[in-house]
Amino acid sequence: MYRSTLELRGMSRVSAPLIKNILLLDSEGKRVAVKYFSDDWPNLASKLAFEKSVFTKTQRISARAEAEIGMFDGYVVVYKFISDLHFYVTGGDEENELILATVLQGFFDAVGLLLRSNVEKKTVLENLDLVLLCLDEIVDGGIILECDASVIAGRVAMRGAEADVPLSEQTISQALATAKEHLARNWAL
Amino acid sequence: MAQLPPVKIKDDDREDDSDLSPFFGIEKGAVLQEARVFNDPQLDARRCAQVITKLLYLLNQGETFTKMEATEVFFAVTKLFQSKDIGLRRMVYLIIKEISPSADEVIIVTSSLMKDMNSRTDLYRANAIRVLCRITDGGLLGQIERYLKQAVVDKNPVVSSAALVSGFHLLKSNPEIVKRWSNEVQEAVQSKASLVQFHALALLHQIRQNDRLAVSKLVTSLTRGTVRSPLAQCLLIRYTSQVIEETSANAQAGDRPFYDYLEGCLRHKAEMVIFEAARAITELSGVTTRELTPAITVLQLFLSSSKPVMRFAAVRTLNKVAMTHPAAVMNCNIDMESLISDQNRSIATLAITTLLKTGNESSVDRLMKQITNFMSDIADEFKIVVVEAIRSLCLKFPQKYRVLMNFLSNILREEGGFDYKMAIVESILILIREIPEAKESGLSHLCEFIEDCEFTYLSTQILHLLGNEGPKTADPSKYIRYIYNRVVLENATVRASAVSALAKFGAAVESLKPRILVLIRRCLYDNDDEVRDRATLYYNYLQQGGEQEKFLFNGLDVPLVNLEQSLQSYEASERRFDISVVSRETKHQPLEKKTPASKKAAKEATQKGYANGHLTTSPSDAYEKLLNSVPEFAGFGKLFKSSPLVELTEAETEYSVNAVKHIYPEYLVLQFNCTNTIKEQLLEDVSVVVDTSEAEDFVQVASKKLASMPYGAPGQAFVAFQKPEGVLSVGKFSNILKFRVKEVDPNTGDCEDEGYDDEYQLEELEVTAADYVLKTVVTNFRGAWDAIDAENEKVDEYVIGVRESLQEAVQAVTTILGMQPCEGTESVPSNARSHTCLLAGQFIGGAQVLVRLQFGIDAQKQVAMKLTVRSDDPAVCEQVHEIIGSA
C-alpha cells in the first residue's frame, strides 16, 4: 500500500504537446471559424474576450510573410495573416513554440490548398464546410492529429474514399507546388 | 447552457457584408426549419450538406440549441446515414461530434457508426472511430473494443491515428480498457508513418505513466533506436528529461544518464526537435556549465533566424536560463543587443530583460542608454516588464542605484497609463526599502513626481510614505514644501493625505512643530469635510502632545485586516468594542501557485501588501469555528494559534494529508486534512495514530475519527493532547493513517460491503517553540521598546558559526523564533558587516515580546549574534534565550 511516492512525482507535468485553440478571425476581429480544445475558457463570453484581446494586440503587426508570435494573457499565440483573414494557434505558456508554428502552418497551407490559393473571407465563408473539416482533421481534443497540409486537405476532401473519384489534375500540381515551397523554406534556414 | 441572443449579423454598419457572406441574415429558427430536408425520402445530398454547414456556422458563432432543438437535429441527422454521398457523410460525422448527443440518444447512431467502422473505406473507419469514441460511454466501449484494438495496428495511418488519439482521450474515463491495448500500441510505436508513431508513443507513455520502471525502459529502448517523426522525437525528449530528473534524485555525481541522447538531438534536422532538446537541457536540475554550452550555442543560432517564432522561442528560453546561469548566456549578448530593435516587441522586451539579467556592473550605464531609446516605442505592458527587470537589477547592484533610480524617475515623468506608473512607483518604493542609501534620492524623485501627478491614488500613496519616512531623514524640512503644495493645488483626497503627512512631521520632529501648526491651521477652513476634520484633529492633538499624540501617530498594534474582521462581526450592543480581543497574529501570504491566473492574483496581493506597508492576513476564525463544533474540545479554552498547513504526504500520492497544529494554553490539537485521490476506493473509519515517543510532554486525551471519506471529498480527523501549562513543550510526532478500504466501481458508484483494513505511513510532524509565538506587528518599535521596563531585559551573546551571508543568519534566527520582523529590518543591505534586526511577537499566555538581534560577520564568515529581549514577563525573556540556546 505504501507505494513509493517518488515514482509519482512530477509525472503529470510531462504531457504531449497540447493545442488550446485555433482561431480564424476576420480583419475586424470577428469570428470566421474557431475551435477550442481546452476548458480554460468555459463560456462564450470568455472565449470572445480572449479573441478580442488577441486580435487587438496583433492587428497592427504585419504577420504576412512569416508567422509571428507573442505571449498574451499567459498563453503563447502564433499567428499569420493573409488578405482579410487572421489565423491563430494558441498553446500553454510552456509549449514548444515551434510545434505551435508547425500546426499553424499546416492549417494555413491546408486552407490554401482547399481554396486553391484563393484565401479571403468571402471564399472561406462560401466554403466554410471545408474549413471546419480542416480544423477537425488537424487537432482532436487538443492532440495534434496531422500537420501536413496536403494530407489534411486530402482527408477533408475524403480523397481516396471511393476508388473512382477522379483526382483533379490541378489539385495535384498545386499540392506539389506547395510541397516544393515547403522544402524550399525549410532548406533556406 | 443559457440561451444566448441570436447572433447579430444584421448590424447596420455591416450592410455591405450582404454580398460578402453567404450567411447574411441567417436565423436559427429558419435553419432548424430547413433541417427538415433531412427527413425527405429522396435525399438531396448537396442541400443537406449546406444545411449542416449552416447549423455548424450557428454553433461556431456561439449560438446554442435548447435540449429539444439539439435532440431534434440529432435525430434528423441520423437519417442521413442512408445517403451514400461521401462529402455529406463527412459532414454528418462532424455535426454529431458538435451536438454531442446524450447517452440515451447515442444508441440510435451506434449501429450506423459500427457499420462504418467495419467499412472497407479507410476514411470512414477513421472517422467512425473518432465519433464513436467521442460520444460513447463505458458500456458500449466493451462491444467495440475488439475493433479498436485492431484499428490501432491498421496499415492505414489515418485509421491507426484515429484509434490511438481516441484511446488517449478514453484513458481518462476508461483506463482499464485502454490499458489492455498495450501490445498493439507498442507495435504502433514502430510504425513507419510519422504521426502514428507520435500518437502511439504519447498513448503508451500515458498508459505507463505511473510505472517509473516501465517509462525508464521505454526511454532506454527508444533513445537507442530510430524515432522518425519529429513530433515523436519531441515527446521522447520530454520523457527522457523526466527519467533524468527521477534518476538523478538518487544518483551521485558523475555523468548524467541520457545526456548524450539530448545532446545528439541538438543536431537533428527538424528545428522543433533541436529546440525541444535545447530547452530540456537548460531545464535539467543542477545543470552544469559544460552541459549547458551546446544548448546555448544552438539557441544562439536561433537568435539570428529570419523566423520570428524561432527568435522568440530562443530568447524566451535564454531569458529563463539567465535567471540561474547568467554567465552562460553572456556569450549571446551581442545577438541579444541587436534584438532590441526587433520588429516583434515581445522579442525585443525579452531580449532587454535578458540583458538586464546577464549584464555586469560595468555594462549597466551603456545598457540603460539603449533602453531609454527603446522605451519610447513600446506598449505599457512591455514597459512594465522592463521596469520590473530594472528593479531586480538595482537590487543586484545596489551601488548602481543612482543610474537606475534616475532612469526610473525619468520614465516616471513621461507619458504612461496608471499600471505603468504604478509599477514604477512600486519599484522606487521597494528600492527605498531595500537600499538604505537610495532613500533620500528616491524620496526626492517621488516629491517631484507628485508635483505633476494625475493619479490621485499614487499621490496619496506617496504622501503616506513621505509622512512615514521623511521625518527620519537628515533634513526633514525640505519635504514640507512639496507636501504643502499639494494642500494648495490638489483635489480633496490628496489634500487630506497631505494634511496627515504634515501632521506626522509635526509629531516626529519637535523643531518643526510650530511651523507645521501654522500650516495645518490654514487647512482648518478647507471646503472639504474630511480635510477640515483631519486638520482640526491633528491641530488639537499636536498642541496637546502626550498620550493622544502617541495614539494617533504610533498606529494600531493589531493587523488592520484582523481589526476589520472583528469590527464586521461586532454587533452593536451594550458591550463596547474591545480592541484587545482582536487577534494579533499576522499570517503570511499563501505561496504563489503556478497557474497564470493565480500568479497574477498573488502578485496583486503582494503589491497590495507592499502598498499598505504591512502584511495582509487570512482569518483563523474558520479554524476556531471548526474546533468549537467538536464537543471533545469544548473545555480546552481559547485557541491561541493555528499553524500554517504542513504537508505530510508528497504531492500526487494515493492519499493526500496535511496537518494544522492548533495550540491551546494546556492542549494541542492536531487537525489532519485528508483527501482520498483514488476513484475506486471509499475509505471508512479514518483515523490518525500518533506516536508520541519523541514528544514526551504530550499525553493523548482524545481522537476523533472521520467516519467516511469518498473520492475527492476532503475530511478532517483530529487528535488532541494535553500538555503542561506555561512550558514550551516541543517534540516530534510520527503519524500513521489507519482506515478501512472499500472498493467502488467508479462507473456505477456501487460499493462493496466488505472492506479490508489498511494503513499508510505519513511524514513526521514537529512542534517547535515557534508554534507558541504569534507574529505581531509593531509599527513603532522604538516606542514599544521604551515602554517596557528595562529591568526586564535580558542580553546574551551567541556564536552562530559560518554562514554564507548575514541575510541567511537573519532568516534562520527569525524562523526559529517565529516572530514578525519589524520596520523592514529583515533585509540586510548587501556586503554589510553588521546588521540589527527587530522582531515582535506574543507568547502563549499573552506576554508581548520584543527582540533586538545584532549580527556581525567577520572575514571568515563567522557570524556572532547579540540577542536582547524585552518582555513584561521576565520568564518569557528566559524562554526566548532558551530557544536560541537549544537551537
Automatic annotation (TrEMBL), chain A:
- Family according to the record: Belongs to the adaptor complexes small subunit family.
| This protein's record includes keyword Protein transport | yes
What protein name is recorded for this chain?
Coatomer subunit zeta
Complexes and interactors: Oligomeric complex that consists of at least the alpha, beta, beta', gamma, delta, epsilon and zeta subunits.
**GO CC, one annotated term:** COPI vesicle coat
Query: Does the record carry Protein transport as a key word?
Result: yes
Q: Which residues form the AP complex mu/sigma subunit domain?
A: 19-160
Q: Which CDD domains match?
A: Zeta-COP
The protein's role, per its UniProt record = The coatomer is a cytosolic protein complex that binds to dilysine motifs and reversibly associates with Golgi non-clathrin-coated vesicles, which further mediate biosynthetic protein transport from the ER, via the Golgi up to the trans Golgi network. Coatomer complex is required for budding from Golgi membranes, and is essential for the retrograde Golgi-to-ER transport of dilysine-tagged proteins. The zeta subunit may be involved in regulating the coat assembly and, hence, the rate of biosynthetic protein transport due to its association-dissociation properties with the coatomer complex.
**Chief localization:** cytoplasm
Keywords on record:
Cytoplasm, Cytoplasmic vesicle, ER-Golgi transport, Golgi apparatus, Membrane, Protein transport, Transport
Which Gene3D superfamilies does this chain map to? 3.30.450.60
Membrane topology per record: Peripheral membrane protein
A GO BP entry: protein transport
Query: Where in the cell?
Result: Cytoplasm; Golgi apparatus membrane; Cytoplasmic vesicle, COPI-coated vesicle membrane
Q: Which organism is it from?
A: Riccia sorocarpa
UniProtKB/TrEMBL annotation, chain B:
How this chain sits in the membrane, per its record, is: Peripheral membrane protein
Keyword Membrane appears in the UniProt entry? yes
Query: Coatomer subunit gamma C-terminal domain location, by residue?
Result: 770-884
Q: Where is the Coatomer gamma subunit appendage Ig-like subdomain domain?
A: 622-768
Q: Which InterPro entries match?
A: ARM-like (IPR011989), ARM-type_fold (IPR016024), Clathrin/coatomer_adapt-like_N (IPR002553), Clathrin_app_Ig-like_sf (IPR013041), Coatomer/calthrin_app_sub_C (IPR009028), Coatomer_g_Cpla (IPR032154), Coatomer_gsu (IPR017106), Coatomer_gsu_app_Ig-like_dom (IPR013040)
Where composition is biased (Basic and acidic residues), the residues are 588-606
Region named Disordered: 588-616
GO BP annotation list: protein transport; vesicle-mediated transport
Where does it reside? Answer: Cytoplasm; Golgi apparatus membrane; Cytoplasmic vesicle, COPI-coated vesicle membrane
Q: Which Pfam families match?
A: Adaptin_N (PF01602), Coatomer_g_Cpla (PF16381), COP-gamma_platf (PF08752)
Keyword Membrane appears in the UniProt entry: yes
Residue ranges constituting the Clathrin/coatomer adaptor adaptin-like N-terminal domain according to the UniProt record: 29-544
A GO cellular-component term linked to this record: COPI-coated vesicle membrane
Q: Which UniProt keywords apply?
A: Cytoplasm, Cytoplasmic vesicle, ER-Golgi transport, Golgi apparatus, Membrane, Protein transport, Repeat, Transport
Q: How does it assemble?
A: Oligomeric complex that consists of at least the alpha, beta, beta', gamma, delta, epsilon and zeta subunits.
Q: What does this protein do?
A: The coatomer is a cytosolic protein complex that binds to dilysine motifs and reversibly associates with Golgi non-clathrin-coated vesicles, which further mediate biosynthetic protein transport from the ER, via the Golgi up to the trans Golgi network. Coatomer complex is required for budding from Golgi membranes, and is essential for the retrograde Golgi-to-ER transport of dilysine-tagged proteins.
Q: Which family does it belong to?
A: Belongs to the COPG family.
Q: What is this protein called?
A: Coatomer subunit gamma
Source species of the chain: Riccia sorocarpa
